Amino acid sequence: MQTIIFTDGASRGNPGSGGWGAIVAYGDDQVESRKSQVKRVIEVGGRENDTTNNRMEMMAAIQALKHVSEGNDVELFTDSAYLINGITAWVWAWQKNNWQTKTKDDVLNVDLWQELVEVVRGKKIQWKRISGHSGVPANERCDVIATSFADRKTVTLFDGDAQDYRVDMTVTVGTEKEIKTKSKQKTVAYSYVSAVDGDIQIHKTWTECEKRVKGTSGARFKKAVSEEDEAEIIAEFS
User: Helical H runs in 105-196?
Assistant: First the structure.
């Protein structure tokens, strides 16, 4: 079964009163159109005291994925780069390093990262980043749910047949990769990562990196804009 998920988190202060919201749309793999394949939709949400936006973004994904059975294909849309980078790259290095960063600091929000690792198990998930407040109706709806819970306001959550759901789940903006590429083009480099015949090296300047990869068949290279981004690229090249 194909499942489409939208998630969002919010906090009034950092830390402060927080809320999370998600849309879980169940369908099948027999049709290609996102609109026609959806059969049932449920909205979920919740709140916490003294929390952060990042924790609420993570909680939205965790709780939404708890509504998906193992073996299902999932397309999950979020506006949180922290969530996507963490679950697709950083978390695996943290696990190997006993939940510490490269600088030997304890990983923040480790309880939720550990829970997220468990709920993604057995599911084939495509993590897709969308820009927040960019006109994606389903993302805007998740924001309404999250902020309503954060503000202790009443919000009615939908649970029923997709034909009765009035929120458009069309996505026409950039994916995570497109957004990150545009952002990196404007950001000063933290380092450059190259891979030649499986050997990965870190370079502090583009001149050094270019010297290694130029004219070398099959060479790969990328600019990193932070230590975390560097780790993500290394994981990708590995």
Answer: 110-120, 137-150, 176-185
